[in-house]
Each structure stands twice: as structure tokens, then as C-alpha cells.
Records
---
Amino acid sequence: MSTSEQKTTNTEQVFIFDTTLRDGEQSPGATMTLQEKLTIAELLDTMGVDIIEAGFPIASNGDFEAVAAVADQAKNAVIAGLARAIPADIERAGEAVRNARRGRIHTFISTSPIHLAHQMRKSEDEVLEIVTRTVTLARNLIDDVEWSAMDATRTPLAFLSRCVEAAIRAGATTINIPDTVGYSVPEEYFKLIDDLIKTVPGADDVIFSTHCHNDLGLAVANSLAGVRAGARQVECTINGLGERAGNAALEEIVMAIKTRTDELPYHTDIEATHLAKASKVVAAAANFPVQYNKAIVGKNAFAHESGIHQDGMLKNAQTYEIMTPESVGIKSTSLVMGKHSGRHAFREKLKNLGYELGDNAFQEAFTRFKALADRKKHVFDEDLVALVDDEMGSAADRIRLVEMNVISRTGGTNHCELVVSIDDKPVSVSVEGTGSVDAIFNAIKKAVGADPHLVHYGVDAVTGGTDAQANAHVRLEMDGRIASGSATEPDTLFASARAYLNAYNRLLVERGASAQGAMAG
Ligand code: KIV
Ligand code: ZN
């Protein structure tokens, strides 16, 4: 059933609040550039997300600028900025969303005994007074104010109810009940939302919202339990990105509601055919690969491997398929283009895949496509998506790979000769390693004069076949900061080197440090 058909069945709307750019970006290593945030925000706005939480404006100038730029750009969605229960935070958030067609200040304070005692060192009465004062301040700045009780699910109901009542009296229009540490189970979360809606004075005049973390793998189940209890806003992120084990995954919430309208008689305004693309763009920007068996958007989500399943699928797809890949925007692999394809066909193909690039980005992508088509016989849709996403990741790199030669020998050490350009100056090194990748990473470390800790290194094939492109992921850590990088190349070793450099470049951006030797000091 299509979204428009659902609406005609008189179901109630569940508003989708996407926090990929705020809670999602708080995942270690998931920092995104301004351009990446704008691209993601545009996608979310186009696909029908109701509220986009674009960042935490007081956190840094970069966060403030990102929220303001998303607010300027958005055509439909409400743009929210997060603020602690501190006047300076609230004023900064108000300033950041000032130019939005519809802006929201989202302010929060902890309510659980453990947070009050150990983190805030405040009494319940002090917290209640702060709720009233800060929500009132926010309401004086803007009409749309969301209030969140951090660690709500570990807060005694009596005190939580008093806080919710205070926030409503002070003018909050949305009340969010976060399961901040992902501790709740569905029956309990249902009861919590149900109790609050039924007992708190003024509850009927506001929208209740869920915000569930996934530490026990229950974020989506808890969010849907909250909806059944009467919550009409769900906070979630693309790919479930977020602190620790992440948040409720937007694509899972949307498709559960769409697929099981019999049990979940609601609708969202999300155009589900954009989900696959949103997943890819966020995975590339945040450098957070999606697990193969991830519901809805994982590589294997619609793959049928066993003979009995394949037999059933061939006879009737519904035997093993509860939704179609097309319904979430997954197109079957198609052989697209070769080295003779021209600019026009390439632009059209990208458009079909959902990419409209500016002139410079298009020219760069076309040059890389030609180079790829020269080396790889079959160029698939997935290759093009990887190629364009890879362009996004490398735009701001200050250290670039110029040339690399690797020699691998059986039973001996491996050797890497490398030239990188650091802020446009070439640096050459020659280094040994236990394996080829070790030699490459050692060479980069020597060239830049630093020794970051390698947290993760992995390689996937973009398509099948021995000539498939390699997509390499690297995560580096330095001084408690983590940055991830990825790169796609027909050659695994080049992909690995570029992914390492991409992660290193992101560490430099975060530190605002000089390129060479940045990690040493
Ligand atoms: O998890 C949480 O409690 C949050 C709040 C800031 C809403 O992210
Ligand atoms: Zn959160």
C-alpha cells in the first residue's frame, strides 16, 4: 500500500524527528562536514521528515553554522537546535534556527536520581525550578519548544510527572521521554508513556515523543510501543546511527508502520523509496558502514541465498518477501555503462540514481568514471554510487596520495614507496612492513610524522567478481578523538591508502592543526 493510500484509511500521523545530524553525529568518528550535513538535510527534507534536528549550536561555531545553514535551506521540515537547560544554550539555539521557515528549540535536562546525584548535583526542587525557567525562556524566543527529560526511563514516575507538568505549564509543545541509556523494554516503555499521557495535567495539549537508544537492541520496539501508547513523534536516525549502540533506525520505524498497518494503524509522511539512498549517503558521510544484515537497508536485507527460499521467490516473491526492495528504493543491479558512455548519459544515469551534482563535482565524478571504465569491464549502479559518495568524502582533504608502489614477497617483508602531497608540497618516503597494508600505513605515518592508533581497518567488495572495486574503511584515534575514513578504488591497496588518508584528514579538520606532524604533539 502506498503512503497516499494509507492516509486515506484515516490513520493517525506519526511525526518523524530525525536526529542523524545531532545524536547520530555524536557517534565516535562520525563527524560530518558542513557540505555533507547540507546534503543529508536536503535529502531528509525531500523525503518527508517532519523535524530535522540539525545540531547542538552551543557546542561549537561549526555546529552553530551547520544548524543555521540547514535552517536557511529547509523547504518543509521544522529545523530544531538542541540546548541544555542553560540560558546561553537556549539563546544560541534560538539564534541558529531564526531563519528557518519553522524553527524549534529543543531543550533538555536530566531527571533521574543517578544523574541528579552524580552529574548535576541538584535536588528535585532545583531541577523543577530550572525546567520552568528555561522552558519559559525558550517560549519567549520561539513558539515551537520541545522539552526532554534525559534518562527519563530511570526516573521515578512521580518526579518525572511533575517535571513534565512543569514543562507543559511553561509552554513546551512537545514532550520527549528519552530512554537515554537504552535500558527499557517495550511493555515498560508503553506503560510509562501511557501513564504520563493519562495522568499529567495538560498532556492532551502537547505531542509526546519517543527517543530510544539501542543498547539492548530494543530501540525500534520501544519506540513503537511508545507510539501505541499515544506518542505521536518518534526520534530516530538513518541507519540507527547514534551514541554507543545507536538510536532507533528511521528506516525500520517507517517500514514497520507501512508494512504492518493492521497492527500499527498509523502513517508517516516519509516517501520510503528514498530510504536506500539516505542510508548510503549517511553511511558515506559518517564513514559508518551499514552491517550486511541490517534490516531494510543492509546489503543482504533482500538477498535470498538458500535453495528453498530461492525456489519460493521464483514461484511467488511474497513467499519470503514482506516488502519489495523497490519500495525502499533498492534497484536491482544493472549493467549500466562502459568506457564509450558520454557525459549526457552519465548525468542521466546519476539523476536516476538520485544524484544531481554541481558542475565541478560532476566533472570530477565523470573523470573518475572514465578511469574506472577503462580498468573495469562491467560498471554497475553500485560502482557509480560508490564513486560519487567517494568524491563527497575526499573534497576537503589536505593530504593526498600522489603515487604509491608496493612490493609483496613470499616469506619476506613488504615494501612501500609513497609520495603524498601535504598542503600541496610533495613528501616521499620508502618504508617496510610485515604485510602490504602494514607497509602502506607505516609509510603514511612516516610521511606525515605522526603515529595515530589504528582502531579499525576493513575492506568490502562493492559488487561481485574479482574485478570488483574495493571499499576500504579506516578508523584512527588520537588524543581521545576518533575519525573514520573510507575510499573506493579498483585496487584494494590504493583504497586502503586513501581510506587511511581520509581518516587522517578528518582528524586534522577536527583539531584545526597543521598537516605535517599534527599527531606528534
Ligand atoms: O538520549 C538522550 O537523552 C538525548 C537527549 C539530548 C534528548 O539525546
Ligand atoms: Zn540520544
---
Amino acid sequence: MIGKICGTGSYVPVEYMDNHELSRTVETSDEWIRERTGIVKRHIAKEDTTVSMAVKAAKQALTDSELCEEEIDLLIVSTISSNVILPCTACEVQKEIHAINATCFDLNAACTGFLFAYNTAQAYIAAGMCKNVLLIGAECLSTLIDWKDRTTCILFGDGAGAVVLRAEKGNLYRTVSCSDGRKGTALTCDMGDYIKMNGQEVFKFAVRQVPEAIAGVLKENNLKEEDIAHFILHQANRRIVEAVARRMNVELDKFPMNLQEYGNTSSASIPLLLDEMNRQGKLKRGQKLILAGFGAGLSWGASVLEW
Ligand code: UT7
């Protein structure tokens, strides 16, 4: 059995901050941010929390899936920014949407979190442990940012994306999934502190490892670049996406982006983009996509998704 996406949803706070507004509080400029990252604005939660955003995205995905909440038997939230340490965000979401039959847990693998949660869901389905999975990536990163640090505050944003996976007959794709804790100091957030990042180190790591992971996952599944309709990368930086496309020798228009609108939303970025593309009618049944994530840990990987 394989999990097929039968519903998507997303939510971002209505409030946002554009580059011009940021440049009034830290020494930066719209020009620098656009040139170095491609980001134009980011949505920032005022009233919303990680849970409330996750719930709104989840409700949309459930409606789109035409499944009812009681049919969900596994609910995973990927997040690094839960409201509280206990209970986990997934249980809080369960309570709000009445998914009373779901096993619920959170997963923290930073910006690779949604990818690892997707792989986890596929493994549960393949093992016959569940049938219908609600997968959410939700982040309120604005609470983990030092708004006086121009090297990080320009990058991140808040939001949530969700997908519902339903078990169908089919073969499980092999994945490429990697972590290297020895390089963890490149991107950290201590308890009670803010996100700190060696931007150049993370940039170089992403540009090196992501094409390798994608090449690996294509080989593992006997696929070629031309078999893939879209490469859905974690939305961290336009220049990273461009560099990956260049290294793979694949045209950039196969790499959709929405980071200009939302900034880097960590584990929410991939489901946010999937939902946007789904609603725009850009995804067709049977198409193969590649999901690729990278970030703190360091962790990275790539998986095949058959739409
Ligand atoms: O989601 C997890 C994964 N995270 C990522 O993928 C992030 C990866 N890294 C990046 O995207 C990029 O490294 C950044 C966008 C964070 C930074 O871009 P960069 O081209 O690597 O810039 P840099 O750190 O080399 O800084 C270049 C210059 C420095 O000044 P000097 O030393 O050349 O005088 C910085 O102090 O730009 C300065 N700078 C800024 N200037 C204006 C750093 N931040 C800013 C800023 N505005 N916001």
C-alpha cells in the first residue's frame, strides 16, 4: 500500500511584514533581501499560534479530502515552534478537529521535518498500521527570532500547510534520508533563546547535498529528471533553488517557488507550496513530484510523491 494525497490545505496569518518595513528596524534594505534571498515579505502571527494555524490548515485539507475527522488514524505535526512543550501540537490539533481515532505525535527535524513526516506516514501505511493520515507542517517562527538580528530576522515567516494521505494499492518508493549531527552547530536555537545560523555554511551544505539527494532518489527508483513534473524544494532562498536547478541541469520552471510571499516557514514550506499548486490546478493525477528538504540537524533528503 502507498499513501496518496487526497486533500491539501494551508493557512498564513493575515498580518505580514514587507522588506521596507523591516528596513526601518534593522540595517538592511529591500534590495539586499530580494537579491540575496528572493524574499519580498513574510506573514507574522499576531493572534494566531502554531496550533491555531495548524488547525485551520488541517480543516481545509480534511474538507478537500472528503474524509471525515473520525477516519483519520494517524496525525503528525512537524514543528520546531509548538506553543508549549506538553501536550504536543498534534494532540492539541486532534482536540480541536475531533480526530478522536488518531494516534498523535509531533516530529522535529526542522526544515526537513515535513519530508521526514511524509516518509513516516508512508512507512505506517505500508506496514498496515494506518489508513488515513493527516500530516501538518506548522510554524510560528516569529517567536523564535531575534528581531534585532538582521542575519536571521529577514528570512523567516509563520504559516501552516497540511495534507491528507489515504492508503491505496501501490508500491512504496524508496527515499533518500540523511542526518549529520556533527554539523549541528551551523543552525541552532537554545532553550529560551533565538535562532542562530551560520548562513554561508548552511547555504553551501544545501547547494551540495540537495542535488545529490535528488540524484540518489531518482536512481533508487529508476527514474530520470524528465519523469518528474515538479521539484518541490524547501523554500529557504531563491538562490539555493536556482543553484540546485543549475547543478542538476534542469530548467528552473520545474522548481516552483512561493518564498517571495512567505519567507522561510521551515516545515510548513513544502505543504504550503503543495496546497497552493493544488488549488491552482497545477498538479495532475499520476504526475511524479520530488520533495526535497534540508536544514538544522543538519538533516536533508528527497522523496518521490506520486500525485
Ligand atoms: O531553512 C533552513 C536552511 N536555511 C537556509 O537555507 C539559509 C541559507 N543561507 C542563506 O540563505 C544565506 O547565507 C543568507 C541569505 C542567510 C545570507 O546571504 P549571504 O549571501 O550568504 O550573505 P553573507 O552572510 O555572506 O553576508 C554578506 C554581507 C555581510 O557583510 P560584509 O561582511 O560583507 O561587510 C553581512 O554582514 O551582507 C551583510 N548582511 C546584510 N546586509 C544587509 C547580512 N545580513 C544582511 C542584511 N542586510 N539583512
---
Amino acid sequence: MALRMSSLFVRTQKEDPVGAEVASHKLLHRAGYIRRSAPGIYTWLPLGLAVLGKIETIVRDEMARAGSQEVHFPGLLPADPYKTSGRWEAFGPDLFHLKDRRENDYILAPTHEEVFTLLVKDLYSSYKDLPLSIYQIQTKYRDEARPRAGLLRGREFIMKDAYSFDIDDAGLDASYEAMRVAYLRAFARLGLPCLPVKATPGAMGGSGTEEFIYPSEVGEDTFVRSPGGYAANVEAVTSIVPEAIPYENSPAAHVEDTPDTPTIETLVAAANANHPREDRAWTAADTLKNVVCAVTHPDGTREIIVIGLPGDRAVDLDRAAGTGMLGAGEVDLEAATAEDLAAQPELVKGYIGPGNDLEHPVLGLEAPSKIRYLLDPRVVDGTRWITGANEPGRHVFDLVAGRDFTADGTIEAAEVVLGDPAPDGSGPLELARGVEIGQIFKLGRKYAEALDLKVLDQNGKAATVTMGSYGLGVTRVMACIAEEFHSDDGLLWPQHLAPADVHVIVAGKGEEIAAAGEKLTADLEAEGVSVLLDDRNKVSPGFKFADAELIGIPTVIVVGRGVADGVLEVRNRLADEKQELPLAEVVPTTVERVRQAYAQAGAAADAAVAADAAAGTAADGTVETLAD
Ligand code: ATP
Ligand code: MG
């Protein structure tokens, strides 16, 4: 049945929603696809559901192709499995908690690893049952600190989440690779450019993981790539650690007055003028900057730490928080406040340093303050620094790592900058922004161990199952498609994802024109082409065209005055083309165009997998050479 503008539950809006920053948010609201219910929570209208349904169909199809079977879990779950796995705490305030009338803890599920694990434990008992891949398309809840950009970051959103269960590592590798191919194919069919990048497991745990990134300025993720094919989320980039340097011949550390050196630049200038190095000039990269930060752990405890890094680098708080080097679970990292600093009198603002005596450190292992001191991995033993002397107006020179100070550990906290070397030697990195549209994980045995998922192996012994988990943000993907495909005047969907295949506009008065619109609609639908018919009586053609541009179906057929001469105007908005076609040709031409659009999406999926294979990126993100 055709959709009719005269009865369709939609009211297009002239105004952007309050506070909307990105095109997808503005246009999905204005074109009547979604309505905001609460911050980060949206109601779906018929047009929105139509596109969402097409996206889900493609995702389902690729899951089936990868051998995954669909199930469906509740969104409301008992808290116990999440307590057992530790994620009741690890999720921190992002988790929506509630109690039932008997005071039992429940959650609104943010993701479902625990209950999938328990379901398999419930039903399966032998290695012969494996491998298994199951998935759902389901609503997730996360009380995001900063819901933003409409569907891009919601507090309620739809995710496709799949889980694989294998008896051994080789099985997990194969399951992961099948999902990886399914993702490449699904995003290609959805028309979204995307790039698999190495990522960090974060609170999920596990070994290998990749994120699928849609490159876009509206994204919150920064990723890097090299000419040689390395691609990673900044959180996953590892610094190239230099060899330790022998320090027997290094000069002894000495504390100096350094008046009027409020910045690193002035400090370096004063150092070169008054305390020159014998071998070369001091640079900003020779200064050791010590930044005081506050970590909020998932249980709410706040910890003050100091991060030491070369003075030519800034701290990237998100990268540092995402590395997993600050503690278990999802941690929050921010610059320490004045209050935090006031509570740590041993830290002299502007002159913080680890001290120059291993026996009596100010920071680091054994220091009485017990403040965790974490160093950039480039600060290897033997490197020689200028840093704060823990006294106002004084710095220590020739402070040698390993000889004069140590730390409690290392952390990749430094901002990755343009031109940094790729860790695999594949060239200088460039940085770009993007949106994470999916992430695949080799979880390993973490959840199976926590929840005791074992099966009998070939020898009749109980063996812990190894798992993978594979998330794809369905509603976020819809926002990304809207970002990628729109014009100044509205949405402009790829042909095969539009809420209807064709938008027929009755643009003229009189019975004859209205009847021609009805006939065209019936003829198209008889051929399996879906139609949105603008049959509104009292609406001007100008209004109808504006609505059509906002709603964004790329094929528009105008039924107007030409009817008298037996011609209709067929517009292809994606190609910015218009043609006048004789009535008899309109239906076959349109049917062919729609059919081709679906076929092209399928071909794009094959091409994406071939291109990925040619790029030589293996499942673990390592780059293979042609010689392999
Ligand atoms: P992000 O880093 O953007 O918060 P995430 O890494 O926490 O995402 P995952 O747990 O990997 O997300 O979830 C799988 C997928 O679900 C993500 O790749 C993304 O596409 C989608 N997703 C996650 N959070 C949201 C959200 N708040 N709104 C919409 N989609 C989301
Ligand atoms: Mg993720």
C-alpha cells in the first residue's frame, strides 16, 4: 500500500531542533523521522521506521550470510550476572539501575555479553555444539554523560549485537573473521564509507579488537592512518619506545634558579643561555612536564595522579583514559582542580618534578606521597631531562631517568600528532575524525570464566568456551547515512534506503492530474516499487516540492500539466537530473532504476571485501607484506 501524504503521520518542521549541531539531527527532526522525548531519547515516526527497517534488513541479511542466528533478549535484566562479571561496577554511572518491588536490583541493559553467555550455558554442553554465532537487534540503554547530535549518541539506541562461541583460539579467529567480513559487507551495502581501525578493548577486556569508523568531521573519535595501511584509534596507537641509553657518562643532576621562565619556551631559552648541553641545544622535548590529573574510578573513587611526558607534547585525556592503563573498568580522567591541588601540598604548581634522589623521591615508587606517577613510554632509562625542582622558581637539570628517578608505570597519555611514526613502521601518521559505527572483539574467556560457561571437549574434559562480541550501532548508522547523504534542502537517501522507492507529486489541479497520479502509483506498486504519493488537495506544488526535498526520496515523479500531452517529469535527485518521459516509459524506467540500485549495493559489498583483502589488513589489524 502506497504511503499518502494526505494521511501519513508526519508534520515537517521549518525550525531546527534546539541545540542541534549536526545535519543529520536537524534534518531527521525537520523531515519528520524522529521526535525527541528526553535528552538522548527519541520517538520514531513512520518515515523513520521505514528507513530503520531497511537498514535492519541489510544487517540481518549479512548476519545470516555469516552464519549467525537471531534471538531476542529483554532490555530489562536482573543485575546478578553483571555483578558476577564485575560490570555492575565497571560501567559506573553509565548504567541505568533500578529495583523491582521486592527490592531486587535490575538494569536496563547497556550490552548483553553476560546473558548471552548464560543462555549458551543453559542449552549447550559439548564441543560438538560449537561453533555457535547468535545475535539480536535490540534496544540498549546507557546514561551517557554527554548525549549529543540526535541519534549519533543517544541514551536509548538500537544496536545489533552478535556473540560467537568457540572451543579454541583458531575457532575464535575464524568466527571473528566471518563477522569482520559481514561488517565490511553491511556498511558497503549501506553506502557508508568505513575503515576498520585497531582499537583498545577498554572495559570489555579481551585480546584483538577493531572499530569500524565512518570518517566524518562530526565524529568524536580521532583515528590515525599511515601511507602503508596502518589504521588505529588514537587510543590504540603505541609510541615507538627508544632503546635505553647508557648513563655512566651523563653529568650529575643539578638544581638551578630559573627566574622568569613561566613557559616551556622561556625555560628552554634560559637553559640554553645559562646551562647549555655539551652535545646539542636543549629543546622542548628535553623538558619533562608533569601534569596533575584526577581519575574517577567506576566505583566513584577519585584518585590524584601525575603524568610525566616530554614538554613538547600535550596530554590527551581521552586517549589516556581509554588505554586501560589507569585501572579496571571505564575510568574518567580530567585535569586536577585547584581544590585537588590544594589537597596535595607536596606538589608545587609550575615546578612539579619527581625529585632528584632515588633514595628520597617526591614522586614515583616509594615516594611518601603515594601519588601514582606514570610516565610517557619515551621516558626510558638514560634519557636526560630538565624538570621542576619542587621549589618555586627552580628547575633541576640533567635529571636522568632510572638513575635519579623512577615511576609507578608508563601510560600512553601524550597526544598523537601529525607526522608521528606508525608503530609498525609503515610511515608518518595523519589524523582524522570519525564516528564509531561498529566494534568487534575477541573477548576470549573472560565472560565464560566469570559465568562458568564450560563444555566437554574431545577428551571428555570440561573446557572453558572462548567468545567474541560484535556490536553495530543501527540507529547511529542511520544518523551517519543522513550525514553522508543530504543536500542543503534536506535528506537525500541512497535509492535503496529511502523510506519509499519513489515520491510521486501531484502538482496541478483537476481530476485528470489526480487520476494520473493514482494510476501511476498503482502501476508502480504492481511492479513491486513502493511509493509515497503526495495527494494533498489544498497544498501548493511549491510546498509539496519543499517537503519532498526535505524527506529525501531520490526519485521524484512530478505529475503535472504534462499529463495532457502524455508526459511526466522524472527527477533523479542523486544525479541532479530531470527528464520528461512519455507516460508509457515512466514505469519501466523507474522499475529498472530501483532494481539497479539494489543490485549495485550488493556489488559494493563484494568490492569492499576484495578491497580490504587487497589492502592486506589481516583480522588482527597487522599489515601483511606481499612476501607473506
Ligand atoms: P562510544 O565510544 O561511541 O561511546 P562504545 O565503544 O561505548 O561507543 P560499544 O560498546 O562498542 O560502543 O557498542 C557497539 C556500537 O554501538 C558502537 O560501535 C556504536 O555504533 C553503537 N553505540 C554505542 N553507544 C551508542 C550511543 N550512545 N548511541 C548510539 N549508538 C551507540
Ligand atoms: Mg566501542
